[in-house]
Here is the input.
Amino acid sequence: MLRYTALRFGLIVASFGVIWGLVRLRILPAGLGDSNYLWVGLLALVVSAPLSWVLLRDVREQAAVQVSQRVERTRQSFAAAAGEEDEADDAARATTGARAAADTGAGDARPAGEPHTA
Here is the structure.
């Protein structure tokens, strides 16, 4: 991913340099007043976008594979952690339920149908 970003930035800088040279040679029109660098920068972005689409296709596809693998690993670790948490929660409920049943069963020695008074 870092490689693609660096190559993309390099392509923008190279486009800026070429377009700036063409503007200085008066092959391309200059911006109005002091907007020359803004004009060259915007034109460099517009020109570099289709160039990167064609020239950086393989690098972009490799970066996409890396990102998708990272997302899948994160999903799997999240699912594993959620499963472990569920198991621990179920075990805690079972222990608490068994303890509560033992507590109520031992102290409840009254005849059936007679109300419990504390």
User: Anything to note?
Assistant: The chain has a mean pLDDT of 83.
